[in-house]
Structures are given as C-alpha cells and as structure tokens.
Amino acid sequence: MSKKYEGRISELVPARLMVLLESRVNDPRIAGITVTDVEVTADTRYARVYYSLIGDDEAKAQAKRGLDSAAGFLRHELGQTLRPSAPPNSASFTMNRSSAANGWPTCSTSCANRTQRNRSNEMTAKLAEAWSEAEGLLRRAQRILAITHVNPDGDAIGSVMGFTLAMRQLGKTVTPACQDTPNSRNNYITGINDMRKEGEGVYDLLVAIDASDLQRLGSVYMPAQHARVPMLVFDHHITNTEFGTVNVVEPATSSSAEIILKLVQRMGLRLTSEVATALLTGLITDTLAFRTSNTTADTMAAATTLMRAGANLIEITQRSLVSKPFESIKFMAAGVLRAKVEDEVVWATVPKKLRAEMEFREQRGDAGLVSMLAAAQEARIAVVFVENPDGAIEIGFRGQPGYDVSQVALEFGGGGHPAAAGCTLPGPMRDAVNRVLPRLRRVVREH
Ligand code: 5GP
Ligand code: MN
After folding, report:
1. Closest-lying ligand to the alpha carbon of 422?
2. Which residues, chain by chain, have CB under 5 Å from ion ligand 2?
3. Is the pLDDT of residue 166 over 60?
C-alpha cells in the first residue's frame, strides 16, 4: 500500500465508521462512542479500530455488546471502504476501547516497519485477543451454524462435531453443516447424522472450522443470508485468509480438533467421551497417527487428555485411518502403478475411468494415494492429480521437511500446510499437469 493511500485510509475509515455507527446502526447502546484511531495492515485486509467512550462499566459492557452485534454489518460496510474492488467481507477488523482510564494507548503505528520481535509479540497478542473475543461471541450467541470445509476429512468432521457437542452443553442450538457428506467410516461419531448440507436458517453466529478461506465453505455459506452475521474462524492452516470477524488461527497446532480442545478447556465445558472421540478423530487423521511434522509434544498431551476422557485411540485409528473398503485399496494400488519419479518429484494422474475400472464407488478423493507416494525415497515432493466427476482436477501435494508445498497450492488458488496442501484446477488433466509440474520442479531445483 502506498504511503498516500495509507494516509487517506487512516482518515477515511474513522470518519466512515462514525457515519455508520450514528446513522445506520442506530443502537442506543453505542451512542456514546467516538472512533479515535484506525490501524490498517499493509494488505488492507485487517483493521484495528480504537474508540473511546465515557460512562461506567455497565455502559462500557453495553457498548461492547452493541458493537459485537453490529460487527457483521460493519465488517461488510468497512470492507467496501477498505477494498472497494474486492468482494464484500474481504476485510476483517477488531475494535479496542482506548480510554485513558484503562491505560491503552491510542496506537497509530503503521504495520510496515516493525522488528520481527515486535511482530511476533504482536501476533501473540493478536491471537490472545482473538481467543477472548471468540469466547465472548460464543457465550452471547444462541443459534450457531458451525460449518466445515467441502470434501471433509477426519479433522473437518471431528472438529465440527466436537465443537457442536460441547457447545450444546451451554443450551445453545448448534447446527453442524458441510456441503458434502462425511465418509461413512466416521459414523461412530455421535451426532454425525445431524449434519446439514446447506446453511438455510436464522443464525446469530457462524463458526467456520478447519477452512482456510471462504470458498472452502462451499455452498453452505450463503452471502445473501449470512453476510451480516458475525463469523468466527477456528483453523490451523498457514494459508488462512482470516476471513472471519474474529479469527483464531494457529498454524503450529496439529489439527483444528486440537484447537477445539483448547476451546472446550478455556470455556470450562465438559470433555465427555463423545466430544473426546470426535476430537481425537481429527487429531489422529491430520497427523496420520502422530507421524507427520505437525505432531508436537502438545499434540501428544492433547491425545492423552482425550484418551483419559474416554476416547479409544486404537479403535479411532483403525476406523478413521487404517480400515478401508478393498475397492479403495485396489484403486490406490492402480494409482501407484501409474506413478513416476522425475526430477525428485513423484507424481501420478488418476483419470475418472480408473474409479469405474476398480469399481471404486467414492466419487472424490485419492484414497490416500498421495500420502503413500510421499514415502518414495527418491522424491522430495509428491503430487497426485485426480479427475473429478465434473472434469475439474483435484490436486494433492506432500513435501518432505524443508519443502513448503502450501505456497504452491496457494498460488494455484488452494491452500494447506507446508508439508500437505491441495488445490483444484480446471481440466483437462494434461493442462493441470503442465501448469503444476514445472512449478514443483522449480521448488526442488531452488531448494
Ligand atoms: P489432502 O491432500 O489430504 O486432501 O489435503 C491436504 C491439506 O490441503 C489439507 O489441510 C486440506 O485442507 C488442504 N487442501 C486440500 N485441497 C485444498 C483446496 O482445494 N483448497 C484449500 N484451501 N486447501 C486444500
Ligand atoms: Mn485440519
């Protein structure tokens, strides 16, 4: 962002917000607020708004509640101001009270020239703030739509169901949703049949879990109905675009399930064996049973906690990870036979007709092929191109330690983790291969 634009934004945004608060939100609880300052990140995606308010603690609490309930609307409107050419809701912001009474400075530093140390302190502070705002949003909400990503994996299903079962303890109505049907191997998770495939309905909070961007929510996210509802994001992908009103994003955490366990503990909810079973499913599937580079001592401690709460590690590993239909094993084997290693990249294409030939009924996914190929000693990166029924090419990447495939996936419109990522490109197969393979060869060459 140019200095000139930066200057203009820092004048424009407070003025725009004041107009919105006074003339559009029209809520008596926030009548006494003055916007004092705005910090905007260089990419204009994130804004922090400081405001002052005269009044007692009750007035301050009322104002905070008023602001929270207006947050979805303000985010939408402010997004139009910050990023006029971007789609609505592409900006997120937080609001901080800045009064002399509580000693918060009215900070106006630009985000461009801070030291690394400051930046990491700032990230820790930002995450701590996101956690407490998340808790506030959840406590106040009554009707929650909990959405996970399209083509859900074990972490998507486990974390969204763990969240749903735990939040229902607070008497809230929680609807779990996912555009696509969960794999039947996860049928042991309590409440999985409550999952809806669309987002129709009246909700006062949306919670996106394990999704790195808004598109990953698929058709469950309905802009016309949902744009004004606050969105809370829980995720662990390094490529997360922070598309929520509040974003709890922890890329160093093994799984979204591990983040939801922290939420359960923070909010003092009961870790029932049903909640623990759902969450351990996420943790086991995203770490391939503690074998991937995102497994830390904290992951092991989380697994211990979940086992002590009644989750059966052996049964969950068997059902969610190991056991699969024979046809899926045959499908994977056929994929392995098609694979080649070239320039330290192991790759395979899986055309639609291979599913039919192997009588593999599942219409999507690679049945674990890319993870299997990633074991090749001769390769640094593994990639599998799967042709979907609609002709689009779903691409899965795996990188050995030190190789970051998440950035390649991001360049092609997808996302993920440094060691495991994915994206979807238009067909035909040959075009997708010709775009992606040279890029991966370059990653290996430049390493
Ligand atoms: P998998 O290869 O196991 O399907 O996915 C590996 C990782 O990449 C997962 O964390 C998954 O969420 C992410 N991923 C896979 N496909 C996509 C995609 O099309 N878009 C995004 N944003 N992430 C993806
Ligand atoms: Mn995950």
Report:
1. 1
2. 155, 210, 256, 286
3. yes
Alpha-carbon gap, residue 108 to 93, rounded angstroms:
15
Q: Which of 150, 178, 209, 212 is the pocket-test mutation for ligand 1 (most atoms within 8 Å of CB)?
A: 212
Query: Residue 155 and residue 320: Cα distance in Å, rounded?
Result: 10
Those residues whose C-beta lies under 8 Å from the C-beta of residue 110, and which sit 6 or more positions away, are 6, 39, 42
The 3-state DSSP class for residue 103 equals: coil
C-alpha–C-alpha distance, residues 278 and 165, integer Å: 9
Contacts of 160 (CB under 8 A, 6+ apart): 146, 147, 148, 152, 176, 178, 195, 209, 210
Question: Is residue 415 in contact with ligand 1, taking CB distance under 6 Å?
Answer: yes
Q: Is 63 in the pocket of ligand 1 (CB under 6 A)?
A: no
Amino acid identity, residue 331? Answer: F
Length of the chain, please?
447
The domains located in the chain, with CATH, are: 3-113 (3.30.300.20), 134-322 (3.90.1640.10), 326-445 (3.10.310.30)
Tell how far CA 138 is from the center of its chain: 17
Confidence label for 90 from pLDDT (cuts 50, 70 and 90): very low
Three-state secondary structure call for residue 187: coil
pLDDT digits (tens, 9 = 90+) for 392-423: 999 999 999 999 999 999 999 999 999 999 99
Give the pLDDT confidence of 271-295 residue by residue, as tens digits: 999 999 999 999 999 999 999 999 9
Does residue 398 have its Cβ closer than 6 Å to ligand 1? no
